[in-house]
Amino acid sequence: MFDTMTMTKVIGGLCSTFLVFLLGAWLAEEIYHAGGHGDYHDQAYVIEVEGAEGEAEEAVEEEPFSVVFASASAEEGEGLWRGCRSCHALESGQHGTGPALYGVVNRPVQFYDDFGYSGALAEAADVWTPENLNAFLENPRGYAPGTAMSYNGMRDVEDRANLIAYLATIGG
């Protein structure tokens, strides 16, 4: 059934297919990484800007959370809630992957007896004040190392304030 010539054709076909894929990958790399490879990062054309030498970038200071929270919008926070509802519910006692967030603002951290909280949250805070929620939502694993919450965090302070303002309207 298989003789030497058939095996040679099969191996040749596999090798040529592999070669086509390698050449295709190389071509795609050249097309989509036009800046070159390695440490070569020089620009083709540099626009000189007068007075740009020696200017230090000004550090952008974030407004304090209390100031941002004072003008937070619960309506905008309702839109941000969509990202939370895959794991949390707003009905009292109805848990998802995470605990129910009904009345979460200014309630004890481990409020529900029927939910298995991670011990990391109890070590981080006693009560979910808006400031504690802000710190937790910014970086859950940084605020409560060892938390079971796998969310990476919400970077924008205004988004966090709006979400907390929305949660404060639910069951508070």
From TrEMBL:
<protein>
    <submittedName>
        <fullName>Cytochrome c</fullName>
    </submittedName>
</protein>
<keyword id="KW-0408">Iron</keyword>
<dbReference type="GO" id="GO:0009055">
    <property type="term" value="F:electron transfer activity"/>
</dbReference>
<keyword id="KW-0349">Heme</keyword>
<keyword id="KW-0813">Transport</keyword>
<dbReference type="GO" id="GO:0020037">
    <property type="term" value="F:heme binding"/>
</dbReference>
<keyword id="KW-0479">Metal-binding</keyword>
<dbReference type="GO" id="GO:0046872">
    <property type="term" value="F:metal ion binding"/>
</dbReference>
<feature type="domain" description="Cytochrome c">
    <location>
        <begin position="72"/>
        <end position="171"/>
    </location>
</feature>
<dbReference type="InterPro" id="IPR002327">
    <property type="entry name" value="Cyt_c_1A/1B"/>
</dbReference>
<dbReference type="InterPro" id="IPR036909">
    <property type="entry name" value="Cyt_c-like_dom_sf"/>
</dbReference>
<dbReference type="InterPro" id="IPR009056">
    <property type="entry name" value="Cyt_c-like_dom"/>
</dbReference>
<keyword id="KW-0249">Electron transport</keyword>
<dbReference type="Pfam" id="PF00034">
    <property type="entry name" value="Cytochrom_C"/>
</dbReference>
